[in-house]
Amino acid sequence: MNSTRCPRCHNELDEGPIMYRCASCRRAVFAADLENEFVPRQPVAA
Questions:
Q1: What dihedral angle (degrees, nearest 10) is formed by the CA atoms of 34, 36, 41, 46?
Q2: Which of 6, 15, 16, 27 is buried most deeply by CB count within 10 Å?
Q3: How many CA atoms lie within 13 A of 44 on its CB side?
Q4: Strand 19-21 relative to strand 28-30, pairing
Q5: pLDDT of residue 37
Q6: Source organism's superkingdom (predicted)?
């Protein structure tokens, strides 16, 4: 099972499966928004 990561601080999210929470930055993220808010750690070369 893949762990779900926070889009802001990249720490592992807990709870779920509809709403996740980040214990580090205290952000709440809906599962439907994870793909839309994902920010890669390193830019991909075009």
A1: 150
A2: 6
A3: 3
A4: antiparallel
A5: 53
A6: Bacteria
Domain carrying residue 11: 1-39
3 domain residue, yes or no: yes
- On whether residue 44 sits in a domain, the answer given is no
Domain count, the chain: 1
Q: Give the model confidence (pLDDT) of 2-46 as tens digits.
A: 567 888 888 888 877 888 898 888 888 888 777 655 555 666 666
Cis peptide before 17 (omega within 30 of 0): yes
